[in-house]
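Here is one chain, start to finish.
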Amino acid sequence: MAASSCIACNNGSTDEKEEKRKCDLVGYEALPEWLKDNEFIHGYYRCEWPMKETVLSIFSIHNETLNVWSHLLGFLLFLCLAIFTAMVIPRNGSSRSSNSAAYQLGDLVEMANMTVALRHEALAACFLLPPSAAALSEDGQQQIPTSCPPNTSSSHHHAIQIQSSTGTAATVDAGTAADPITRWPLFAYLVGAMVCLLTSSVCHLILCHSERTAYVTLRLDYAGIAALIVTSFYPLAYYSFLCNPALQRLYMGSITALGAAAVTASLVPAFQAPELRPLRAALFSCMGASGAVPIAHKLLLYGGTAPGAVASAGYEALMGVLYGLGVAVYAARVPERWAPGRFDLVGHSHQLFHLFVIAGAYAHYHAGVEYLKWRDVDKC
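Its structure:
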């Protein structure tokens, strides 16, 4: 459905009493150069619509509809994950949850319950008693003191055996058991994911309004991608090298500097040129692929001794595969390259790319949960 010009919004009626404004969709050939990005998508373009109509087009059908909604729903998903994580995974050694179910929900609740158990064991250790000294009730439940004498020193440390629901015992230091590991790296990642998804959704929605709007929103989109990649490194670097602050700073500082450099490079107007699509894909792919270095380093240090390190690496590998597939589809522009015009509304490469990004980001969230399970029990 091509049109001869990009004058898509016009007065649809000459009646002075009831003048009706209408915005039409146009074809690829009618677009100005700054809006031409994928010649294999032939129609259903919005072009230089007024801002009000552009924003309201979120509820209409065009070739950006699914791009807008896929990442908008992804943003809401990660907002719910952030709220859920804050409520279920305690940060101060307490939790309101007392039941456990199947993982994911069940495993997070079980983690909360374990944290309460760790705190109770630490309180028992305040009395300088070994775990075996705690009395058992008739139903087999351990009776744990709920307060410590004022003169009890918090500097005493005792090894405590805690029996998990799977029957395996974990040895925990009483001096650190009461306080879970800090959660800020995981929440930083969740914020980075939300920033990426929201800026992407806004970009796809209003980019068509004007050339200036396109320039600004595309740079925000690139900044959001960089934010996702950078914050993805924070749980990996912080929790993996918890016992080595120098390595923490090295890895976190390096990826932050790379992210800032990528955002700076994206400010160059030519960065958005269609012919530079492979370069854009390569730039952000290399940023993400550099995560293989700290992952390999983590496995070298803890691969044989910490199941949490291996489990988190598995999710990170899955994330890498999903992101890699997404970038490959984005750069190759398939399947629309094989059947131009057939995937204008549904199924073109950028929509598939969005789905792979959400799936990869969700896999990395699971890796973050594995880090918390590991480091809540195994600290330095």
